[in-house]
Write a structure and sequence with these properties.
Blueprint lengths: L25 H31 L5 H4 L3 H25 L3 H4 L2 H21 L6 H26 L1
Helix pairs in contact: 1-3, 1-5, 3-5, 3-6, 5-6
Length: about 160
C-alpha cells in the first residue's frame, strides 16, 4: 500500500507530527521571524546607540556619569524600549499565518530574538547588579508587550 499526500488530514506522510500546513517543518517556520527580529534589533540598537552617544557625550565621557535621571530615561531607556518593540513587531509580522494562529508558537517567534539577544549581551558583562537585571527585564517586558500589541492591532 502506498501513501499519498491525500491519505492524511494534513497532506503530509504520516500525519502532522512536526510539519505545519505550509509543508515546511515547524522549526523552519520560526527561522524567518527570528532572523527578522534579530536584524531589526541590531539595526535599531546600533542607530540609537550612535545617536545617543553623539547627542549626550560626543567625546566627553564625563557627560555619561553626570546625566540627570530624566535624560537617562529619555535618551537611554526609551530608545531601548522602542528597539525591543520594533524587533518583536518585526518578528511577529513575518510569522506566517498557519503557524501564527497558535499562541505558544507565536510567542516563541516573537520573543526569542529579543530575549535571546539580551541574554547573550548579559553574559558578556563583567559586572552584573540586581538593579541592572531588574531594569533590563522591565524594559524587555514593556517592549515585547508593546510589540505584541502592535502586531495584534495590525492583524485586525
Amino acid at each position: 500500500m502506498s501513501y499519498s499526500r491525500q491519505n492524511t488530514p494534513s497532506g503530509h506522510y504520516g500525519g502532522d507530527s512536526s510539519y505545519g500546513d505550509s509543508g515546511r517543518p515547524r522549526l523552519l517556520q520560526l527561522v524567518v521571524p527570528w532572523a527578522a527580529g534579530i536584524i531589526v534589533l541590531l539595526v535599531t540598537q546600533a542607530l540609537f546607540t550612535t545617536l545617543t552617544w553623539d547627542l549626550i557625550a560626543g567625546k566627553d565621557l564625563e557627560a555619561w556619569y553626570s546625566m540627570s535621571p530624566v535624560k537617562v530615561v529619555l535618551l537611554v531607556y526609551l530608545p531601548m524600549v522602542v528597539s525591543f518593540t520594533l524587533a518583536t513587531w518585526a518578528a511577529c509580522a513575518v510569522h506566517r499565518e498557519p503557524s501564527s494562529d497558535s499562541w505558544p508558537r507565536h510567542l516563541v517567534a516573537g520573543l526569542v530574538p529579543t530575549v535571546g539577544a539580551q541574554l547573550v549581551a548579559a553574559t558578556t558583562l563583567d559586572e552584573i547588579t540586581l538593579l541592572a537585571v531588574l531594569v533590563q527585564a522591565g524594559l524587555l517586558a514593556v517592549g515585547c508587550t508593546l510589540g505584541f500589541l502592535v502586531d495584534r492591532l495590525r492583524r485586525r
